[in-house]
Amino acid sequence: MSESMTDVIEVAGAEIRNVQRLLGDAGEGAWDRLLDWLVDDYFRLEVAGVENIPAEGPAVVVANHSGAWGLDGFVLQKVFSRSLRRPLHVPAAPLVFRFPVLGSYARKKGAIPLEPTLGMEHLTAGEIVGVFPEGLSGLEKPFRKRYQLRPFSHGFAVTAVRAGAPVVPVSVIGAEEACPRIGQIPVLARLFDLPYFPITTVFPLPAKWLVTIGEPIPAPPRPESYAARAAAARLLCAESQTAVQALVDRERRRRETPFW
Predict the structure, then answer these.
(1) pLDDT tens digits along 2-52
(2) Where are the beta strands (DSSP E) in 148-228?
(3) Overall pTM surpassing 0.85 (yes/no)
(4) Sequential DSSP letters for 90-148
(5) What are the angstrom distances between the C-alpha of 113 and each of 19, 31, 239?
(6) Distance between CA 172 and CA 139 in Å, rounded?
(7) Parallel, antiparallel, or unpaired for β 46-48 and 112-113?
(8) Are 170 and 50 within 8 A, CB to CB?
């Protein structure tokens, strides 16, 4: 291949990468504007308890996970960036980063790869990590069991104990009605290599959203032995789930109607 042809290919490749970057930036900007509209005008989001988030230092935000598509993660990130000007680092499954635009947007806004320590390095740096301990099972709940929390995985509590970080319970109301899970289609899940493919509305329904931040639960002093640390983590996990469920139950009663 001649030198001139090699130069042409290199220039063309650079131009293609530049176009891809511009398209990606445009897509992320469009998604951010759509999210602003959803939060402010469509979901009419109300936020309470922002003062319960530590102004500085580490914290583990623990929230219920609901709605067929997991839109609550993006909404919660938007709440924190607006209210606190502090990034919320949410450990996300590899699937999230596979989606065009949404994956790169999530990464830029603080999403981090899901791994066993659940953002330990961010906590030791004095930052905030947000987790949904129900995991995928929270999104798979049928609509008739909405707002009934699935058992929490205790990994976040282990990390909180190790880091000495308080746990801040958060309830998210509205996602269950906005993206109700009516069923699922296993064939499509296998076809698209997804954990599951829900039967739900193509576009979210206009449900009223409430995000409520509860009082922090202090992390216990770090025990010396492994057995004591494990016991402390189990206790913190149970206390956190009880606190989130109590917030969820209370805030559901406060909402006059789920829809417009």
Answers:
(1) 555 444 434 333 333 343 343 456 689 999 999 999 999 999 999 999 999
(2) 167-173, 183-184, 198-199, 210-213
(3) yes
(4) -EE-HHHHHSTTHHHHHHHTT-EE--TTSSHHHHHTT-EEEE-TTTHHHHT--GGGTT-
(5) 27, 21, 26
(6) 13
(7) unpaired
(8) no
